[in-house]
Amino acid sequence: MSTAVVGVETQARAAREAARTLHSASDEARRAALAAMAAAIRSQAAAILDANGRDLASLRDRPAAFRDRLTLTPAGVEQLARALEEIAALPDPVGAVVDARVRPNGMDVRRVRVPIGVVAMIYESRPNVTVDAAGLCLRAGNAVILRGGAESRHSDEALGTAIAAGLRAAGLPEAAVTLLARRDYDAIRDLVRLDGLVDLVIPRGGPPLIRLVTEHARVPVLKHDRGVTHVFVDRDADLEMAVRVIVNAKTNRPSTCNALEKALIDAPAAPRVIPPLVAALRAAGVEVRGDAETRRWAPDVTPAADDDWDAEYLDLILAIRVVDGLDAAVQHIRRHGTGLADAIVTRDRGRADRFVREVDSAAVLVNASTRLVDGGEFGLGAEVGISTNRLHARGPMGLEDLTTTKWIVWGSGQTRA
Q1: At what angle do helices 74-89 and 45-57 cross, to 10 degrees?
Q2: Percent of the chain residues topping a pLDDT of 90
């Protein structure tokens, strides 16, 4: 075995030992560790901001939306600390009874939540994910190995130093939360092959990252894939509501996966919806691209190319297409969507019900912005991301989704006939 592989495996073995400690750690101990991590982030805020500044200095030529995902401010660092305190305040998922029954033979059967074990979280350049993932995994009793993007290396290392200080102060093993020591893609390949040491891999990012992990993993993978999201404006939609929902979904943090990428306009609504919608989007700084029918009602819109319908811009760009009714909207979403989040704006309950039933995405909304697809907005507390998988967890992934279950049976001498 190569020295490089041993290095990753050694780190995973240390995480496995830490996971065994966390498995039996009390709720109070895990809460105390999160509080200590928050205090360490506050005390090391200057070093964290300095590290973040070094990352940003090397990215002056990158798009504004990309830099926005990476940027930390004093208020942002404080929010990271508060996020850990908010996670600590969430109800403990470990030990929660999911199902309980007494069998006719008197046997007491229960299914309870327990930690998954060792989680590998692989994501792109978002320092907030470093803290959220660390906090959520620890709160659920898991050890976690974190691997952020190369562009946030200094920020992640500074945050990792603070997290380690918090774990030491709380008396929990530092290996409970670690950054993958090697940053190259070979290290990711080595990590996701460690069946028996790593229990779950969560990749969160663009297609190349997801493909790298899924092609090489020998452990379960829970994908947090890209978001090509849609809002369909039905023919009888309230105009003001439609404009408000679309502008919010596009402009409220356009760099996030639940930001809107495509607006589909029912053909009968196009004359009254498209002109004010395009005007509102432009006033908000959005570049609008449209098909031929969209440009009939807004002639100066940039023509949309074929690849626009599959693009995840993560920027202030929106593509608009006019479609012939609900059936055409659903077909477009099935062909071009990624199954993360899609919405309809309508006053017709029947068409809303059909949209909800026929659009098979992790989250389907009626008369609401796709930006609301979030663990905090859904009442889950913080989230580790938005899963596009169909098994185990789908949609915003909170604390409960970072646990599995085991059966506990209490008997009094029962045997099987």
Answers
A1: 120
A2: 87
